[in-house]
Fold each of these.
Amino acid sequence: MLLTGGRVGPPSNKSFSDGDEVLGLYGKSAEMAVSPLHGNLYTQTYRGRMFHGYATNANQQQAALPVYSTTAPPFILYNPRSSAVNCILVHYVAGWVSGTNVEGNIMLGVITNAPAAIATGSAITAFTNGTVLNGNLGGGMKSKVRFGSATIVAATQFLPLGLSNMVLDTAKSTSVNFFYNFEGSVIVPPGVAVFSCASVASVALYNQRLSWYEFPI
């Protein structure tokens, strides 16, 4: 029989170093304390594996959501075949900026035959790198995947995100929150790319953010 032990007391206020030996924490009734002290992605973020791709440059800032048949997505995440990491999607966020929507829904376009290198005749023929920020602000490692805008062969696979972009314009006062939590349900392995798109064409502009963490295969 495996026995575990520890101490009864309050949570520690010390940040331990790797390799330290510590005791498990127990409550006043000898119950093991398992409630997280941090968010469930704290360790990935602390270790520098969390990344955020977001709209900041002229090509991506306040971009319209392209229709699903687009060949020029302005907001795309591409995991090259040589990256040696899986890209685990965490969050997608979009904020309406201006312009009138056409009613539809936001989806994730999927390219499963992304090339090892960008080239004419491949599924991705051109790529412009965008801004990627490590979640451990000012630290962490450099992302091994690519994020930005691209020229592609139109995708045929799509994941609806359950986000409906209704008819919004400057006359509307209702707050809209476009947020999708993947909860680790989508992995973008090497040789796959995903991009945001809509079921119908619209001229409304959005600021967007896609968050993911990278883990060795």
Amino acid sequence: MAKPAKFRVMEHDFAPMGRSAAGMASESPVGREDAAAGPAIDLVHLSHQTLGDSALETELLSLFDRQAQQFAGRLSEPLQEGETRWRADLAHTLKGSARAIGAFGLAHAAEDYETAIRSDGPDIDARLGRLVAAIGVARGAIANLLGRA
């Protein structure tokens, strides 16, 4: 019996948003959390999610940008008694949305905050600060990608 062929997807096989993913790595670090973390938006992942449909990529990024802006505003309000559940749910929703578009650094920050607030863990304010900062990084990358920067 023959072994199934192995397929390897190369970054240059995709051209999301009119750019090659490989080309994004050599661009300036605008929209990056840091060099080790990778891009704020993984364009190869986004292209996979949209089957390379650049109009759909643009629409998803625009929708996510509005959602992230609203969530950042709500989460930045002072924490009141009895709000931990909706804040955790908001972080959970943001985590899923961020993963869908390839904003993995943001998804990680949302998960970290969600876990901390659900368990009344330590450093909730610091984790919230990192989450809000990650939202800013992702939104900046989206603005750059959509030509709004």
